[in-house]
Every structure is written in structure tokens, then in C-alpha cells.
Amino acid sequence: MGFKLLPSFLYGRLRLLTWRSTSSRFSSSPCPAAAAAASEVAGAFFGSRRVHQCLTAGLKPAFWQPQDGFHREELDSSPELYSGADVFRRGSSREFRQVTPEGYAQVVVRLVMAGDAQGVEARVKEMVKADLPNMEEVLGFLVSGFCGEGRLSDALRVFRAACSEGRLPSISVCNGLMDSLLAEWGDLNSLVFVYKEMVKGGVVPSVDTVNCLIEALFRTGHVDAAIDQFRRMNRRGCVPNSKTFQTVMLNLCVNGRAQESSKVLDEMIECRCKPDPDFFGSIMPLLRKFNTSIEAKKLFKMMRAFGVLPDLFIYCDLIHCLCENGELDDAAYLVEEMSEMGIAPDIDAYVSVVNGFCKVGRFNEATIFLESNDVFEPQPYNALLKAYCSEGRFPHAGNFLTKMFENGVGDNISWNILTRALCDSENPRKASEVLSRMITSGYLPDEVAFSSLIAGYSKAGEISNALLCFQHVLAESWVLDSESYSSFIHALCHEEMIQEAMDVFYYMSGKGHSLPAASLNLLISHICWKGLITEAIKLRSISFCNGSPSSSTTFNSIILRLLELKRPQHARVLFSQMLVEDCALDVKTYCLLIRGLCTTGGTKNAMLLFAQMINSNLAPDSETTVALLNCLEECSQMHKIVHSLDNLVEQGQVLCSPAYNIVIRALLKEAHKDEACKFLDQMLEQGCVPDADTHGLLVGNIGGERKDKSRQTGTTDDSVTNILVEGLTDANEHIVDE
């Protein structure tokens, strides 16, 4: 009696696959019972995740029948069986009484669990070549089982090995493999491989096959290829279904091609394709997002044509889309229809309609709409109040606010809307009156109200009142919103109240709120101007810790002050922090550091920064260039920067006349006459002439060379020298004449 790889209750079912070999060996059609058994075995064996337990239980293939000299103990201890290396190689006609499809399936599973990829391919190919009955069912059992267990590599390996021998699983198994590859891997190449093998094997792709391929093409960015596959479906006799249209429309919208999506919807309506239940719920939000009301109305009519009742979300998406396109009457009618159908409209639906009316100046109709629909939530009324304020119609806003509270639809947000609008219009005193009315009405102002007042007083220049409001914020342990915080800091800096500004900064930072970059730059520049460099560095560090990286402007303010205080080593530390924080270095940063290093004896570092600056395609200003060149001339190191200067000229930058004079003089003194002449040529091409010192040095060097050459050659003239001297003379005369 053989030993089984599968549990007994599964093994008996899998044995049904061999029924075809005895009852219908010569039949070309698969046995229904065998196919059902294979499907059941695959689901039970792989779906129950008992592969590992079966393999570790020491179970052996059912077809393995030990003969002459092979005993049970030898098989149990045989490493070859567990590795799968020699299971079939060792088998001869004497050792195997019968090789069945389920036996191959058992060995393939064992090889997969042992990690023997080559063995898997070899056994599958051998199984296919044997042309045993029910082979397709066995292949489907393996591929589907491995997909169900998430072992897509093994499933694909079995599929590839079978295809290499001209045998394919059923189309349902192929579709399942493609779906798994799409869901788990998103690998287009593997999915296309399966699709091509299906076509080569004579398997006609179904609509599910093409849907999977189209989805994969869209996911990998091959939009045009996906559309091409969609257009070719009808020509191949494959009729698109609801899933096809849904996939194409969704992905066209996502890829910014909403107009094409509209055409696809027209095609769907024309071919009278019945949509799936989730079709409308997935398409309508996209039509709202891309603001296509015509298509949204088509989709809504399509729902009614197929007897699909719209839900709350469909209604709200359509109403919003209509309002955005100015179709307000239709939107208002839909709100009434929702109520008649027993669907309570969402607050967002009311707000959308109100905003739509206000957008075109129909304030009275917005009010009538809310009252006729018995709306008692404050949000739609607040939207109308905010619209009055945005239009600057403050008297109407005040009256409407009073009416809101009379009808019991006002709240704290209503007071804050009017207060903020008045403060933004630099009318903080009127806002204070509204705040007094708020308190009289029994409502307590919150941090939003006081933030608005602080912003209003700051913009109006009433800094003392802003400070009084901030004292109340401190007492209540509130925080300011970003706009009010920024306005307050700007006002304090403008009034030179730096200590107060720092106090506000420390308080807000302690609450975990960062200062906007522009306001931080302003504050630190004022602190540096006051000479409080330590405080400036501290503020910058706190801001960084609060998640607000400093800009190059902030760093430049501190670096400039450090250099003015003759503290270049601290400036270099700050420069290092810029690099660590990945702050973009600008021209001003480089120039500040180079000039600072030049004045403090850091010529070598200044030269390195100069080279790095040019390599970053940034051009130094003339002041920085001259400062560095003067330092290099003093220490006779000009020849070390020639390459950087050449790069600067190649980038289209032009040196100023003082820079040329310094370079030429220094190179002549350092005995680099050829380089000096090169820069002289560039100088003359720019229409500049050497100054008296450079001119004298040039003539002296050239004259000395001429005398030396005359002694060597016996001649008394040098044409090249004469041309150079004459060129300099002519250039001087030309400048004088002009």
C-alpha cells in the first residue's frame, strides 16, 4: 500500500481524476466529475493552507510503490524524496507500477515546498509530454492552488513549463492567474506573457481576460495601448461589459482625459450595456471631481432607465456638479426630489446650492431656498453669511446674522465669520462691537475670535490693542492661527518691539506652532540688526525643531551678522548646518562667506567655495570676485584659481576691468606669462584696457623678453612684441578718442 502526500479525505477526491483513464480514455472531452473534483481539491488543499502540515507529516506520493530492496524505512529517510531531485529519475518500470496525474501533482507540490524550481519545471514538462488523461484539470489544480496561496512565482513557473510543451490550462485558470498577477504584483510583462500564450495556444480571450489586460495597461501608464485594446474588442467578437466601461472611464478621468470618458459613456448607452450595481457609485464621484455636469446628468438618466435608485451619495455628487456649472434650478429641484423620496439631503448638498446662488449674486434666492426646505442646520446659513462678507456687504451680513439667531440657526462660527471679515477689511473696532454683541447674546468668544482681532489690530497698526488681546490668549492658553501669528509678528517688528516679538515666538513654539518662512526671515533679520546674534541662532534652531526648515534668506541674515562681528568660524558652522538641512545655497550665501573668509585669512576655504559656486552654475558678483582675487594676489596663489575663472568665462560671465588687472598682474608676478596673455586677450576683446600698473608690468616683461631674445638670435626687433605693444597703445588711443 502506498503512502500519500495529501490527506486521505483529499487524496480520495483527487483520485477521481484518473477515472477518465479507465472510463473515457479515448474521449476528447474532459470528465465533469473529474473537473469538479480537481476544483474541490484545489480549493480544499490550498485554500485551507494545509500544505505545510501535509509535507511535514512524512507523507509520500500515492503512486510510489517500493519494489525489491526498497523498504518503508529507507523511503522515509530518503533525502532525495524530500528534495525532489531524483524522485522520477530513480523510478524505472520496475519501481513504478503506474504514474498518474495526481502523482505528478503531489511531486510538484513537494518540489515547490523544497524550493527546487528546476525540478518543478522538469516534472511539469515530463507530465505534459506523458499526455496523461485529465492533464488540463491537474494543471488548473496546480496553478489555481499556488495563486490562492500567494505563490505567484510558482504558479507562473508551472504555467510557463506547460506552455513550453504546448499545453494550456482552461481559460478560467488563465484568467485567474492574470487577475492574481495584476492584484499582487502589478507586473505588466508577466501578465502580457500569459495573454500571449493564451492567444498562441488557440484560447480565445474572454471579456474578463481583456478587462484584466486593459486594467494592467492603465496601471502601468500605457493609456493609449489600453484604449487600443478597448477599441479592438468588438472586432475580435468580445463584447465589452460593465466592468470594461467602468475601467476605461475611471482611468481616463484619472489620467486627465475626461472628454474621452464622456464618449465612452455615450458608447455604453448606445450599446445598451447593463451596468453593474457599483458602476454608478464609482463613476459619479469622478464626474463631480472633473466638473462634467452633462455626463453626470446622462449617468443619472441611465440609472433611471435601468431602474436603479440613486442613493444619497449619487444625489450629492450630482447636485454639487450642477451647482459648479451654474445649473442651480436643476440642483434645487433634485434637493426637493430627495426629500420626496425619503432621502434626507446631506448638509453638503444645501451648502453647494447656497454657494452656487451666491456665486452669481442671487442671495435672496439662496435665502428662500433654505427657508422653503426647512433647513435648521447652521452650516448652509454660515455659507450665505460668509458670501455676504466676501462681497463686502457688511450691513446685510449684520442683519442676516441677527435673523439667524432669531431663528435659532446661528452658532459661534457665525460670530467668527463676521468678526474675521471685519478684521480682514482693517475694521477691528467694528469687529470689537460684534464681539461685544456676541458676549451679550450669551456666547463666549474663543481663540478664533481673538486671533481675528489680533490680526485686525496688527494690520491697522493698533499694536497696543493687539498686545492686550494676546494677553487674553496667554491667560486662556490658546494659540493663534497662522495668518494672525504672521500679521502680529510683522506689526511688532515694524514697531521695533523685538523683545515682544520674540516672546510671542517662544510662546507659539512651545505650543508646537511654527512661524511662516517670510515672517521668520523678517524676525531674525531684525534680531540680527539689533545685535542679538545668539537669540537669532536660537530662534532658527527652535523653528527647525518645530518642523519649519529655514530658508537661505534666514541663514544669510545670521551669516552676515556673524561676519560683521568677526566670527567666521561660527559662520562656517552655520554654513555646515545649511548643508546638513539640505537648504538650497544661493548666490548671496556664497558671496557672503567668500568675502568673510577673505577678510579673516581664510583664503584657501574662500577659493574652494568660489570653485564650488561656479560648478553649481552660480556667478559671483564683482565685489566678491575682486575681494578674492586681491587675497590671492597678496599670497601669490592666483594660478590656483585660473581653472575656475576659465569655467566662469565659459558660462558666459564677464570679469570686470579691475578683476582682469588683478589676475594679469598676479600671473605675471608668479611667472605664468602665457596665462596672463590669455586673460589680456579676453580683456581687450571686452573693450577694456589695462591700468597703468598692469600696462607697465606687461611692457617690462615683454621688453625683458625681447632683449634676451635679441642677445640669443642677434636680432634687435621682435614682431610679436611690437604687435602686443602697438595693440595696447592703439587700444588706449581708441578709448581716449571715444
Automatic annotation (TrEMBL):
The keyword Repeat applies. Gene3D superfamilies: Tetratricopeptide repeat domain. The keyword Methyltransferase does not apply. One of its GO terms (molecular function) is mRNA binding. PPR repeats lie at residues 206-240, 241-275, 311-345, 411-445, 446-480, 481-515, 586-620, 656-690. Keywords: Repeat. Signal peptide: none annotated. It comes from the Eukaryota. Pfam families: PPR, PPR_2. NCBIfam families: PPR. PANTHER family: PENTATRICOPEPTIDE REPEAT-CONTAINING PROTEIN 1, MITOCHONDRIAL, PENTATRICOPEPTIDE REPEAT-CONTAINING PROTEIN 2. This is Uncharacterized protein. It comes from Spirodela intermedia (Intermediate duckweed).
